[in-house]
Structures are given as C-alpha cells and as structure tokens.
Amino acid sequence: MVGLVVVCHSRALARAAVALAAEMVHGEPAPIEVAAGLDETTFGTDAVAIADAVAAADRGDGVVVLMDLGSAVLSAELALELLEEDLRDRVVLCPAPLVEGLVAAAVTAASGAGRREVSDEATAAMAGKQSHLAPAAGVEPASGGGIGTGPSATFTVTNPHGLHARPAARLVAQVAGYDAEVEIRNRGTGSPWVSASSLSRVATLGALHGHELEVRASGAQAREAVDRVVALAARAFDEADAGEPAADARAEAGAGNGFVAEVGGFGRPASPGIAIGPARHPHASAPTIPDVASQGAAAEWDRIEDALATARRDLRRVRADTAREAGDAHAAIFDAHLLLLGDADLLADVRSRLGGGAPAPQAWSAATDRIAAEFGALADPYLSAREADVRAVAAQVLRALLGDSAGAPPGFGVLIAPDLTPAEAAGLDTARVAGVLLAYGSPTSHGAILARARGVPTVVGLGARVLEVPDGTPVALDGGTGEVVVAPLGPVLATFRRRAAEQASRRERARARAGSPAMTRDGVPVAVGANVGSPADARAAADHGADLAGLVRTEFLFLGRDAAPDAGEQLAAYREIADALGGRRITVRTLDVGGDKPLRYVPAAAEDNPFLGVRGIRHSLEHPELLREQLLAIVRLAREVPVSVMFPMVSTVPEVLRARRMLDEALARAGGGTPSGLRVGMMMEVPAAALKTAAFAPHVDFVSIGTNDLAQYALAAERGNAALAGLSDGTDPGVLRLIDAVCRGAGGRVPVAVCGELAGDEAAVPLLIGLGVRELSVAPRSVPGVKEAVRATVLAEAAAAAARALDLADAAAVRDLLAADGRG
Ligand code: PEP
Ligand code: MG
After folding, report:
1. 3-state secondary structure of 513
2. How many beta carbons lie within 10 A of that of residue 550, not counting itself?
3. pLDDT of 503
4. Of 216, 530, 594, 667, whose CB neighbour count within 10 A is largest?
C-alpha cells in the first residue's frame, strides 16, 4: 500500500488533518507519517525529519508527500536529496492543498491505488469545492470578457498576505516582458477584469490567500504570458517568506485598533527606555502644495518627468542599500515603489489632469490620491495598508516637484527608518522623536550610540517589514529589551505604561544619588564617567552626575565640514565641554576617523576594508598636520583643567612613542612645561594590543578599553553590520579574555577603564569590575543606572563570576550566568 507523509509547519495542524482523514477511511488505512513543526509548538519544517518520515511510511509501494506551503515544499525537496536513490524514485511530491489532498489521498491509498493515482486524486480534490463555490460567487466563465478568446488559466493565491505589493510587483514586472495584453480578475470576489501590467489595478483585486484568480491574454505571446503567470503563482510569486504561517499568526494575534500588527516581537535593544506613539516615517507626510498656475501641459509634464527621475534615483539607492544589508527579498518592496512610478494607469491620469489645466503638483497629487483611496477602500487590512506605500511614494515625488518648499518634517511619534547615520542620529529632535525603530543597524553602530547618548529609546535590526507599518499606527517599544508591539491593544498598552512608570521611578531614585561617587558594597571605588560627543553631551553628563568625561569623541568637530578646525576653534570647543563639567577631568581622544567615519577634506585612497585600514592613530600619524594642531589645543586646555589625552586604535608600541613625541612637541610649542594634571593614555581596541598590554604599560598613564571595536576585531564581525549584530556581543568569553589580558597586563601599574558600550550594560558591570576594571565611561544618561549597578556589586563575588565567565562557551551562556547571579 502507498504510504503518505504530511509535511506541515504546525504539528498540531498536521495531527488534526491526519485524524480527519482517518475518519474518512473504511477498512485498512494507509500508513501515514507526520513531519511537522520543529517541536510541539514551534512552527517550521525540517528536511531530516521529512526524510525519516518517508522511510517510515514506505512499505515498498512508494510514498506520496503532501505539504502545506512555502518552505514546506523546499524542505520536502531537500529531503528527497537525503534519501537513498531507490527510495527517492518511489516518492511523489504532491502539489495538492494539504487538508483536501490528504483526505483524498488517504481514501485512494486505502483502496490499493498506485502512488501516481493517489497523487492525482489528491490534486483533483479542490474540484468539488471549486464547482460548488464558483456559481455562487457569480463568476463568469473563463472566456467571457473583452480580450477573452485567447488562452486563460486559473490559479490560487498561496501567499499568506495575498497578492500584496511585493508579489503584485513581481507579477506586473513579469507580464511586462511579453508581447501580450494580459488581464486578471479575482474569481473569489467576482471582481472585474483588470490589466495585469498595472500595479494599482492588480492591487484593487483584493486578492487574499486562498483566492482563486483567473488570468487571460491576447497577442503574439499570449500563451507564454499566461503560462508564466501560472508558474509564478505556483512559486508564490517568489516571495521569500511566503510560507511562514507564523506571520499570519502574528498579524492576527497583534491586530488591534483596526490595524494589522505585522511587526511584533523583538529586535535588538539599542537604547533603553519605553516609547509609545504613532509611527512616523521621515517624509511620509505629504508636503503642502502652493497655489500657482499651470505653465502649459507640456512644461508641466517635463516637471513630472524630472521629479519621477529624481525619485527613481533615490529609490534605487535605498533599494541597493537594503539589498546589500538585508538581501534581495527584503529590497523587493522598493521594486513595488519603483513600479508605481511608471504605472501606466497613474501616469495616464496625471497626463489627462495636466491636459485639463492642472499644474504638475496638483495633477500628481490628485491622481495618486485616487489610487491611494482605492487601496484604502479594500476590505483586507493588509492590502488596505498598502495605501501607505502609495502615499509615501506620492509624497516623495511631490517633494521632488516642490524642491525646497516641500514643507515640515513628520510630527511627534516613533521614527521608523531603514537605518540611522550618525548625522541623522545627531539631528534627532528629541521633542518630536519619542523612540526609534530601525529595520537594520546594530547596537554598537555610531547611529545607535548617538541615539543612546540622546536618550531616545531605540530598537534595531527589526527587518524590512517594520518599514511597512503605516504612518500614524500606534507603536509601543522597549529599548531595554528590544520588544516592539505595533497597534497594541489596551492591556498591552497598559503594561507598557506601567513599565514606563516603574522605570521612571527607578531612574529618579538613581538620579537622586548620582552626584555621589560609586563604590562596591565592599568599598572599592569605581569612577563612572560619561562619553561625550558635544558640549550638549557634557552638560547632560554633569547633569547626570558623571565623575568625569571618560571619552570625548572629538570627531564631532571634524566631520560634516569642508576644512579642519584650527587649534583655536578646537580649544574653544574643548573648553566649553570642560566648563560644563565644572573642572572634572576630561579625557580627550585624538581624532578617530577613517573606517565608517571618513573626512571630506582629507582625500583618502579607496580601501577594500576601511575598518582594517588607515583609521584612528594610523590616520593621525599619516596626517601629522591634523594631529599637531589637535595636540596643541589639548595641551593648552590642560593648563586650565585636568586633562587626559588618549590615542585611538593603537596596534604597536612605536605608534604610541611617535604620538607621544608629537605631544612633547606640542607642549614645547605651547610653552611652560608639562601641566601637572595631564595624563597620557591609549585605547585598547585591537586584540593584538590588548594581549601586549604589559609592553605598553611603561609608556602610558592609563588604558581605556573600547569594547565596540575590540569585539568587532576579536569576533571578525563588523560592528554596524545588522546581519552580524548577534555576534558582536562584548560579553563573548573571547572578548572577556582580552579584557582580562588587559587587566593582567596592566598589573595594577596603570589603571584600566572601559569606555565601549559594554560599560553601560548594567548586567555586565559586575563582570568588568570582577576582571579588574576601575573606571567605566558610559552614555551620560546611563551614568546614574551604572552607578547603582556598581553599588550593588560585591568585589569578591564579581571576581568569582568573572572567572567562571571566562570559561564559558559563548555570550549567551555568560548572560545566563549574569542573570542567575543578578537573581541570586
Ligand atoms: C570603542 O570602540 O569601543 C570606542 C569607545 O570607540 P568608538 O565607539 O568611538 O569607535
Ligand atoms: Mg573605537
């Protein structure tokens, strides 16, 4: 007897389907094996489990495999590869829908039919349902319409969200390649025929998962076009995650207030705090259109074409960035946007409005409004949410049309963007931006560091879907845990509000004692400083009780301009920082550019690996004129307040010696000997340097570990690369061993600080203290919380935990250990 295998994302669903099929069989049942779910509750499919199930179901007559959707098919195909050749030849992968197909297959197999017959019966199992429903839906026969004498075919939409923007874009793009006029309609809803080469028309079909669509064509390549559409539909329009029922479940579970919660769950926490507010896409809102007369249809059309070209260029750039960072499947959303720019229906409407005397902005906005409204009117919330895509693209073109008069930035809310450059993060208006959600990015990227410095709760690495949350949708996020809820329902919102209130009162308690020095419970003082990237940061540092500025990133003075600042300008800026800190020590790091921070006015040769190239101290030594001027400003400041000067990205002792010689020259130039408060140190960011700490110790007064770069280089995981964000965790035991090596190499002769982001991770504070670190420098707003973490630490316990952590296998194990110690 032919055996059956059920491949399904859900184990519960597979078992229920098998039970249902068993009900229909009389007499001896066919063997049925289930390969479903990754465990009892986790959705997924596994090729090895499928291969085992096939082997178990085979009684010598072969096996028919029924699958649910998407990756189930891919896993089943992979399972075939894993089978012995003679068994593989007896296996049929059946395209039938799972439940109907399984019932038909079970009955047919039990009758003793061969595997081909079983598969054919299963595949035909939809026929009854189709003939039952089609007349009721009032569907015309396939040949009944305008171009209707050509070839036609029907197919069922298997994409979980139906034929939404990305699959629709794929359909339109494919159809465009044929010499044929192709039309399509939704038999399930009895929709009219629409052109398959217009994205906006296709979207009005309201085609949902499971809907049956009909396609027809006329022209020289009509047959090929229809076949291509059917083949495409069989591949779920190449949508990468079309097979994930989890997405549906998430959407349903999170739906609230009339929105579809497509993005719920966790990203990577990048800046702590709770934020609640409407989603805001930069530039999503439409600019105001001035009331000016038309210059004539031809001139106005030229304006439209120019604006479309600009928007197209911008979209292509974003698409390329997205493809590079997240892969082509995610970048495909921008194909839909690009297609909209060339949509024949839209452009015909614009032309006709121009012909009627409308100026370009008015014509464009009226035509795009019409299409957006058609989307908005669709019953399915997912498809109706595509209105936001149309409005975003429409606004983009309108801005290109209007140039500088394009109007105001988005209003108050949670900013949603692909990523945040350092400049964008620095420019965040904290009065308007309650929080930030990024599709990509990593917690140690400079954009995230700046968001943290500015106290803006941020979650990164959420994936491209977050970009599809419609403007204005309520969003709640916790930047400390990475949790994000789109369109939260009342009780969820209440939980977020309660958490926000608890955090606020904890913060207040910590703030009240932030001005006092922190020491461990057993009396070991640990200085907690602030990382400062501007005078405003320095004021925030003083405000939050920082004992010193443990890192002044001087790049803020050098980036985003056309010439370097001279010593006078630098001194004024450093003095402003020092004044804000009221005479507390400031640690000025010399210029750390190169890598992800190029200088516009210093030409640099292209590098294949800029992070491994001329950056940090290497850059300064290659451009001594810049370092000379900077050291002069620093030594002048050191005559006024206690100053530490620190060199970044040091790899070798000679680099320190050369930099120190230049410092001596600057001291001589400034006159008056060496200020008593001047200390000279280096950053430990290069693994080889960390392991050579003892060799550096005689030449420096202190070392400060930059865990962001140290982790990047130790783990060979670029710090801003979202795809690797899970890797570059400073608590990885490999990185901890390097920190341990620094502390042991320093041997108590020179103090060891940490100024990378790990220092601001409250859970990791005892670990660092246990390893021997006695100064932490963190984002200004993190100072009070980190001081509390120091006060909760007992040195002996911390040292024991640190010793255990060094022997663990990975960062996850270290974090488990820290969490257990925190509870105990
Ligand atoms: C570091 O690398 O940890 C560091 C503090 O320097 P930056 O983040 O500025 O590279
Ligand atoms: Mg660094």
Report:
1. coil
2. 28
3. 87
4. 530
Residues ≥6 apart with Cβ < 8 Å to 504: none
Contacting residues for 228 by C-beta, under 8 A, at least 6 apart: 174, 175, 178
Average pLDDT over residues 659-685: 96
580 CA to centre of ligand 1 in angstroms: 23
Q: What is the pLDDT of residues 115-148, one digit of tens each?
A: 998 898 888 777 666 655 654 433 343 333 446 6
Index of the ligand 1 atom closest to the CA of residue 555: 9
Q: Is 8 designated active site?
A: no
- Which residue ranges have their beta carbon within 6 Å of ligand 1? 551, 553, 592, 685, 706-709, 755-756
Ligand 1 test: best mutation among 532, 587, 685, most atoms within 8 Å of CB?
685
pLDDT confidence of 694, banded at 50, 70, 90? very high
Torsion of CA 428, 432, 438, 442, to 10 degrees: 40
Average pLDDT, the chain: 85
Rounded to whole angstroms, how far apart are CA atoms 155 and 187?
Answer: 10
Question: By C-alpha distance, which of 757, 795, 773 is closest to 690?
Answer: 773
684 CA → ligand 2 middle, Å: 9
Q: What is the 499 CA–ligand 1 centroid distance (Å)?
A: 31
Which residue's CA is minimally distant from atom 1 of ligand 1?
A: 706
- Residues 54, 65: contact at Cβ < 8 Å? yes
What is the pLDDT averaged over residues 794-812? 95
Q: What is the mean pLDDT of residues 610-614?
A: 90
Quick: pLDDT tens for 26-52: 778 899 999 998 888 877 788 888 999
Q: What is the pLDDT of residues 225-257, one digit of tens each?
A: 999 899 889 888 877 655 433 333 233 333 332
In angstroms, rounded to a whole number, what is the distance separating the alpha carbons of residues 108 and 120?
A: 10
Closest ligand 1 atom, CA of 708?
3
> What three-state secondary structure class fits 434?
strand
**Strand, helix or coil for residue 709:** helix
Please answer whether residues 243 and 462 qualify as being in contact, where contact means their C-beta atoms are separated by less than 8 angstroms: no
Q: Please name the residue whose Cα sits nearest to atom 3 of ligand 1.
A: 706
CA pseudo-torsion sign 604, 605, 606, 611 = negative
Q: How far is the CA of 611 from the centre of ligand 1 (A)?
A: 12
Nearest by Cα to 383 from 211, 138, 140? 211
pLDDT tens sequence across 445-461: 767 777 887 789 999 88
Catalytic site includes residue 755: yes
Most confident of 323-337, 549-563, 792-806: 792-806
How far away, in angstroms, is 658 Cα from ligand 1 center? 22
What is the reported pLDDT for 143? 38
Whole-angstrom distance, CA of residue 528 vs CA of residue 759: 9
Tokens found for residue 63: 């096996």
**C-alpha dihedral over 99, 104, 106, 110, to 10 degrees?**
170
User: Catalytic: which of 9, 161, 446, 619?
Assistant: 446
Which ligand has its closest atom nearest to the C-alpha of 756?
1
